[in-house]
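User: Predict structure, ligand S-adenosylmethionine.
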Amino acid sequence: MLIPKLPSFDTNSPKKPVLGYTKYRFLSQRAKLFWKLLEYRLTNKKHPIVANLFVTGACNLSCSYCYPGDDFSIDLSVDQWKTTIDKLYDMGVRFFAIAGGEPLIYKNVEALVDYLYEKNVICQMTTNGYLVRQKIDMIRKCSMLYISLDGNKEAHDFNRGKDSWEKAIDAIVYAREEGIPVRTNFTVTKNNLDQIDYMLDLAIKYDLTTTFTPLHEGGERGKEDTYENMWWQENEHTIQFFKTLKEKKKDPRYAKLITNGDFAMDYHINYPKPHHELIMKTDKEASYYTKPCSFGSFYFQVANNGDVYPCGILWNKTHLFTPKNIFRDGFEEAFDNCYDLKCQSCSFSNPVEWNEVATARWFMDGVKSSWHHAMSARIPT
Ligand SMILES: C[S@@+](CC[C@H](N)C(=O)[O-])C[C@H]1O[C@@H](n2cnc3c(N)ncnc32)[C@H](O)[C@@H]1O
Ligand code: SF4
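Assistant: Predicted complex:
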């Protein structure tokens, strides 16, 4: 296979003004979030602080491991999303993650980003990169941009579709040239276990940070083949992957580029079940991790049709969780419905990382990394 050349990039090139990323906004948004999380730690009262809005179920790709969605046809209107944002803000949400489906194809995503920008809350967007060039003025108003990248062309295209790698790389380089900080999100499957070095070289070349996420069970988009055949690696391979990553993080060149916390990597390394299996409250492994899961405690997902989930993993698993809808059942009822879960813990990275935020252990590591992000050259003054 011909290996495509990566575009060049000068990490010292002058940065253009970037609205959502100034140090002051970054620090004030983090402070507001931190205050809410501290309150939560002190009171233990479950309520939304972080909300993942799956603004649309539609997508311009069809990655067969993709997890979101039951119903890709019914997206809330812009006004319904604004009402939802207002209500979530009143309930305590200070961190909004915008995803989907592909958020950049939602018909008026600009209006939602503007709305969040005015509220001065964290607005993180995760995208496959296809429309980053077209939507760059809106992206400037986000507080964080994540672009999904699963490794080199061969690995990425296998996971996410022919020629999707070129689009993701183009988006990364273009956003960086525009002075926008970028984090890549790498989904660990059996096809890209050897891609850590590639991702770290890329992170140095384009001045990126990277999160490595274990695969969890997909949804309706998965089609041609079984998960076992296409995606799941043996447990020992996942364990080896995170052991290697942890070693790499000890190297000062890479320490600040890998966003996975040491605690979360150890959690994956010692996970007592196959990584794609949940640990239920009734399982003998339930004592592996006993802290209440942040998902369903302060982190929630609102689906494109207004259904509320504690966690994307519970999508399509009606034997484990039946969602309620904010417009049909009411906000309070839809969120109250998420507080009592049958699962105890799982190997999805995100809840594992969030479980630790604003705990004593996190103070040792998380504060350092937030400070680094704020003060590094990536964020303009
Ligand atoms: C669902 S996508 C939505 C945003 C956008 N369409 C994208 O691909 O970046 C958000 C992230 O979830 C990841 N993802 C999708 N299916 C997954 C699965 N089964 N397990 C773990 N991560 C998954 C994607 O790779 C992507 O980084
Ligand atoms: S992972 Fe993202 S780009 Fe791929 S199908 Fe799912 S929503 Fe679309």
